[in-house]
From TrEMBL:
It comes from the Bacteria. The keyword ATP-binding does not apply. The keyword Repressor applies. Residues 115-336 form the Heat-inducible transcription repressor HrcA C-terminal domain. GO terms for biological process: negative regulation of DNA-templated transcription. Pfam families: HrcA. This is Heat-inducible transcription repressor HrcA. Belongs to the HrcA family. HAMAP family: HrcA (MF_00081). Keywords: Repressor, Stress response, Transcription, Transcription regulation. Negative regulator of class I heat shock genes (grpE-dnaK-dnaJ and groELS operons). Prevents heat-shock induction of these operons.
């Protein structure tokens, strides 16, 4: 299949108008578009037969498809991608949408978790999609770490940060841990932790374990190594990925198998399997990115689209992301400025706090 630029070059002015009107009508209604409907909206007066011929050519190029025999046409994923890249007109942020997002700030400004939760709810409410907000890791220096046994297969790590923030995370320790090995593991980590953030500590611990393994009790070494997953914020009690508004997609209707795929998508997200994948989507530079259907493995099963943008701290470092998931017939022209504004707002608020 030719690339999108070559496909666009193959289309004359009439073909582009037919293509654009089919896509815009589909994004607005979700319904297939027929040739007779287009005859009433085209710039030039052309017959339904002429439009049918153009639509057949666009179908041959892989840009349109027919959901049913003798029905109208809808854009394919390739068609939607070409429309988004070359023909999409992104509007200005609507004043009412901006006001609803701004309203969430209020009393939550000093609590990042509550603020991001409110923003997630506002984003899903404004867009009628599902929102994803990836919260930043806590990057203050670590003051003290302690391991506490809860049961044979459950342990707690208590993290005390230099700014007074405390986090408790539950995890599954290697078998056979004793109070002695837990104390030794904590002493080892604390000897390295002073003045360092969790991100810095993770790499240093791995190097130190390798060079000092003979000096460290084997059980303690295993405990520290298993605990490195905690430095990636995968603890059960820490919510980095905030998912809100899933009911908006589940209430859209559609075939039962589509709803099952959407449920599976949200179950995966809420189990936090794909946090790293989600951040990678936004970690390739500033600005809003659009993923349509199977273009991204996270959403290929559910046939959904994702509009996502990173947000940055005062040092212009990407620390999180906000996004909206919806059906592939999202109103991209409206959603893009909403996501862009929200990401910039979150970045400013977090920068102001620090």
């Amino acid at each position: 299949m030719a690339d999108r630029g070559a496909l666009m070059n193959e289309m004359n002015e009439r073909s582009r108008e037919v293509f654009r009107r089919v896509v815009e009508s589909y994004l607005d209604s979700g319904a297939p578009v027929g040739s007779r409907t287009l005859t009433r909206t085209m710039t030039e007066k052309v017959s339904a037969a002429t439009i049918r011929n153009v639509m057949q050519d666009l179908e041959y190029l892989g840009l349109l498809g027919s959901p049913h025999v003798s029905a109208g046409r809808i854009p394919t994923e390739l068609g939607l991608r070409m429309f988004v890249d070359g023909l999409l007109e992104v509007g200005d942020l609507d004043g009412a949408d901006r006001a609803k997002i701004d309203e969430t700030m209020g009393s939550n400004r000093n609590d990042v978790g509550s603020m991001l939760d409110s923003i997630g709810n506002a984003l899903s409410g404004v867009t009628r999609g599902a929102s994803l907000v990836l919260a930043p890791k806590h990057e203050a220096a670590v003051k003290h770490i302690e391991f506490v046994s809860l049961a044979a297969d459950r342990a707690l790590v208590v993290l005390v940060f230099a700014d007074g923030h405390v986090e408790n995370r539950v995890f599954t320790p290697p078998p056979g841990q004793t109070p002695s090995s837990m104390r030794e593991a904590a002493n080892f980590v604390n000897s390295l932790a002073e003045g360092r953030t969790l991100s810095e500590l993770g790499g240093i611990m791995q190097r130190e374990i390798t060079t000092r393994r003979q000096q460290i009790d084997s059980l303690a070494a295993e405990l520290v190594e298993s605990g490195t997953i905690l430095w990636e914020d995968k603890g059960e009690s820490t919510e980095r990925l905030i998912v809100r508004g899933r009911g908006n997609l589940l209430s859209e209707g559609g075939p039962a198998e589509d709803l099952d795929r959407i449920r599976e998508l949200f179950d995966d997200l809420e189990r936090k399997r794909d946090i790293a994948d989600f951040l990678e989507l936004a970690d390739e530079g500033e600005g809003v990115r659009i993923f349509i259907g199977s273009e991204n493995k996270l959403f290929s099963l559910s046939g959904s689209s994702l509009v996502v943008s990173p947000y940055m701290n005062a040092d212009r470092k990407i620390i999180g992301a906000v996004g909206v998931i919806g059906p592939t017939r999202l109103n991209y022209g409206r959603i893009v400025p909403i996501v862009d504004y929200t990401a910039q707002l979150v970045g400013r608020l977090i920068s102001d706090r620090s």
